[in-house]
Amino acid sequence: MSERSLLLKQLFEVGDFQKLQDKVAFATNIAMITVDFTGRPVSKHSSCNEFCKRVRSDKKLSEYCQKCDSRGGLEAARISQPYIYICHMGLVDFAIPVVLNDTYVGAVMAGQIRIKGQTDGLERVTNIQNEHKIEGALKSLYQALPSMSLDRIKSLSDMIFYLYNYFIKEVSEKMPFTKYENTPDQKDLSAHKNAPTLQKAIDYVKENFHKEIRLETLAALCEISPSYFSKLFKKVYRCNLSSFVNSLRIEKAKALIIKTNKNIVDVAYEVGFEDCGYFIKIFKSFLGVTPNKYRESLQA
């Protein structure tokens, strides 16, 4: 299980998200489900209509549903706000990003709505259009779906966005700190009594992550021995220096993959990896997928 899946699982355990989701779905008359960063469901469906139940029961169509959920969630995370889009069956859905400790861990997907009037340039998150498969009994179920204007859909998405942000903030404050491999700075540890001693080193790493980071250089900045630096660093950040640097580099790499068309070799070099093969290995250890697969998930 990846670090983000673990964070989302812990969030669900501490806060009763299923109950919140069920109540919001009932009150708004829209379907809702929470998915992880790959689009896989982590909650039960709330108010899922019969039309979408039929669609998701079809193995092939269900794969398109997951792709839509994954892409919608990633777009919502990229813009840090609700993302409204059209799914492969021609319905309007929207994604609410779930962000914990500055990490995108998943999304609340809502919708299954027929739109009244113009779509006003809403984006399709996949090139696949399966509306032509809506016929017979499926057509009557489609016509029974709730319909709304785009303005009302926007208002609903904003309301749910603000509600979940408040709820996540309240719940995250109750979450115990859990050590996950490859997540060195999940928690703000600036209040640790020894953190100030390391601050010059942390600032240096953040500014020079793309260069070679030497233990001796950081220790000298902090005016302590390399051995004591290593001991203190692990005590404060719950990881070793290598994990901390790699975590920062992977976050920078993700941004380049999302925002640019640079090839993976160039991305690796730009964030400080001299060996592209090693970069791919580290990237996969953090996110569970290779850089190319991660890019493909953005374009699905």
If you had to describe this structure to a student in words, what would you say it looks like?
The protein is an alpha/beta fold and 300 residues long. 54% of the residues lie in helices and 13% in strands. The protein is built from 13 helices and six strands. Strands 1, 2, 3, 4, 5 and 6 form a six-stranded mixed beta sheet that branches. The radius of gyration is 22 Å and the shape is elongated.
Keywords, separated by commas or semicolons:
6 strands; alpha/beta; elongated; 13% strand; 300 residues
Concise account of the structure shown:
The chain is built from 13 helices and six strands.
Helix-strand blueprint:
Layout: H1 3-14, H2 17-28, E1 31-36, H3 50-57, H4 59-79, E2 83-86, E3 92-100, E4 103-116, E5 123-124, H5 137-143, E6 147-149, H6 150-172, H7 195-207, H8 215-222, H9 226-237, H10 241-259, H11 264-270, H12 276-287, H13 291-299
Rough outline: elongated
Question: What is the succession of H and E elements?
Answer: HHEHHEEEEHEHHHHHHHH
The biggest sheet amounts to: 6 strands, mixed
Global mean pLDDT: 83
Would you count the extended β strands for me? 6
Task: Kindly estimate the percentage of residues that lie in beta strands according to DSSP.
Answer: 5-15%
Number of helices: 13
Structural class based on helices, strands and sheet pairing: alpha/beta
Radius of gyration: 22 Å
Low-confidence stretches: 176-191
The N- to C-terminal Cα distance equals 23 Å
Helix share bin? 40-55%
